Amino acid sequence: MVFFPETKSCNEKRLEVHLIKSEAARLRAASLITLRLKHHNKGTEPGGSMNKRNSKNTIGVIGGSGLYSIEGLKNIREKKVRTPFGDPSNTYVTGDLGATSVVFLPRHGKGHRISPSEINFRANIYGMKVLGVERIISVSAVGSMKEHIKPGDIVVPDQFIDLTRRRDQTFFEGGIVAHISMADPVCPVLSESLYEAGKEKGITMHRGGTYVCIEGPQFSSRAESRLYRQWGVDIIGMTNMPEAKLAREAELCYATLALATDYDCWYEGMKDVDAGDVVTIMERNVMNAKAIIGSVVRGIGERRECVCAHALRNSILTTPATITRRTKDTLKPILGRYVR
What we know:
Blueprint: H1 10-41, E1 58-63, E2 74-79, E3 92-97, E4 100-106, H2 121-130, E5 135-144, E6 154-156, E7 159-162, H3 188-200, E8 205-207, E9 210-213, H4 222-230, E10 235-237, H5 243-249, E11 253-262, H6 275-299, H7 325-330, H8 332-335
Parallel strand pairs: 1-4, 1-5, 5-11, 6-8, 7-9, 9-10
Antiparallel strand pairs: 2-3, 3-4, 5-10, 6-11
């Protein structure tokens, strides 16, 4: 209740009440505008996030050669994310498949314009983290290094050998050190879900195997291909490293659908790998990959029963007091729960 001095006239009292009501209305309107602006801008700034509904049960899909979209998405929107590590490969496409939110990113950009060595892996993974993603399904074209893995088959690898040389490998540098375990580099739960979904659909799937990641963009020489076979690797590709390492640093579940397109150049009974032939095989592979992804995304649970969700817990060795404010701000989406 508002009290006025008795010396004021009725008109003066009415005027003051009007002014008070007007000011209250102005403040409410300003507050509403601010909330709307914050909601609109979420996900466009480093450290931002999507709305609360998408903060849980959100799956990221990183598409490789041949996979440039996800069919069946509802409520589709494009989100451009700025990161302290530069620009991601493309704008992110978000939408819903059933009760699950999906964030899709074409690894090579629209039109396949980014070479494997030029992919900004840190920005790609950081953007996924900012957008509330907790699990990543990576789709990649690979060459088969084993005769029983035929072109058109799909492998869900569980190990990697990293032979890349030109790529930024970690988020933790410039005054902060974290040694994260990569003993088991993929999420066993998500990997098993992908494998089982493929088997249920009658797709020829291979559970486990070692993916050797080369720099590229050239395919292997015959001598290199034979050497990798001596190492016992199962498939060869150019894009899953350091992608899997960065996903683990960001505490994201990570699993790969590796789409076999060729026999590299080791198999004397088959034609040497050719980009044109790869595209032909990819068309069938991509349809299968989309079917698997759709099944897994729609049936995924919210809780993560794996080590991925707390992979950083005992990995940061730097004394918190020595970490600069700039580094803390840069890595807030990744580091925030451990260092403030």
